[in-house]
Amino acid sequence: MKLRLPVRLYISHAIVVLLGALATFFTVRLLAPRLFDAQMTMMGSGTGNGMMGGFGANAQSVRGAFISSINAALLAGIGVALAVAGIAAYVVTARVLRPIDGMRHVTRRIADGDYAARVPLPPEPEMAALAQDVNTLAQSLAATEERRTRLLGDVAHEMRTPLTVLDGYVEGVIDGVFQADTATLDALSLELRRLHRLADDLSTLSRVQEGRLAPSFASCDLTQLVRAAVERLRPQFDDAGVRLEATTPGTVAVEVDADRITQVLTNLLGNALVATPAGGRVTVTVTDDGAQTTVDVADSGVGLQSEDLTRIFERFYRAPNSIRRSQGSGIGLTIAREIARVHSGKLTATSDGPGRGATFTLTLPRQHR
């Protein structure tokens, strides 16, 4: 059976006091008679008598009485020390357990969902550090819960539009307002694909943020990945009247998951197309300094305000004044940034302001760390 902390503290104090008392007892018990004999010898030598001569026949009885007194005093001291140790153990235990009991109370409140609960910081540095850790945990859980709640609201908002369109078309077909022809079915298919894309993106984001993405790292040519992404999307840029250019050096060998990096590049190009008007330009530039590589996707589009730069990677955040309506789920940049982090890289955005375009920079190490 495990003993409670107050009992263990009392026992620890008692053991320390008992060991100290025993050490004192045996030390005094061994040294006191010898010191007494030596002192008596010196006194006897000073009077011209032999050892303990000054006491004569009473010397042995004096010695015995002295030793008995020493023993009784030591035993009494041990008793007093144990009593004092008990009182000290009680006081110290109460002082130690008070903040611990407070932390237990707060942690139970946090477990019940009260993330605003906080532990008062006790004066002891060690306890204060532990209390601060509990408060930090509560703050993290509160932030996580806030993000979860906001995510649910954002998902509901994103699903509402395609579901409303689907419901309208279906009711229209039932009421005879629409014909179940190819155009109607194409419109229904478009909204269904949008829902499917949203579900896929949410699943990908969840796996990335939970560390379950499990990328397959392999050596590949980054310039080849960039050129392939550019050529695949070039028809969309041509249809929108936006010029797409790519500036790439020779072979740039990197250790990445080619499919995931292609996903990032496709997302960056798609966002640049949405933000750039007809007649504008999007430029993709690959640079390499030996230790790391960067891919800059710069557009001449609507640009970003300073507050947009800090929020552009948030889930479901769409920068205002886009030239075209995005067909994405609204979490593509969030996924792209998380994929960059999985590759020990980063994804950043810069802009000189509204109407002056924006640049998204993907930075990757040459070797995966």
Describe this structure in words.
The chain has 369 residues and is α+β, with helices and mostly antiparallel strands. The chain has three domains: 5-114, no CATH class; 145-209, Orthogonal Bundle (Helix Hairpins); 218-365, Histidine kinase-like ATPase, C-terminal domain (Heat Shock Protein 90, 2-Layer Sandwich), CATH 3.30.565.10. The protein is 62% helix and 12% strand. The protein has helices at 5-46, 59-111, 125-175, 182-209, 222-240, 258-275, 306-311, 332-342, and strands at residues 218-221, 243-247, 253-256, 281-288, 292-299, 346-351, 358-365. Helix 2 (59-111) runs parallel beside helix 3 and helix 4 (182-209) runs parallel beside helix 8. It is elongated and about 130 Å long. The model has no long low-confidence stretch (mean pLDDT 80).
Could you list some keywords that capture this structure?
8 helices; elongated; 7 strands; 369 residues; two-stranded antiparallel ribbon; Heat Shock Protein 90; Helix Hairpins; alpha+beta; 5-stranded mixed β-sheet; 3 domains
What's a quick, concise take on this entry?
The protein has 369 residues and is of the alpha+beta class. The protein has helices spanning 5-46, 59-111, 125-175, 182-209, 222-240, 258-275, 306-311, 332-342, and strands spanning 218-221, 243-247, 253-256, 281-288, 292-299, 346-351, 358-365. The longest helix has 53 residues, at 59-111.
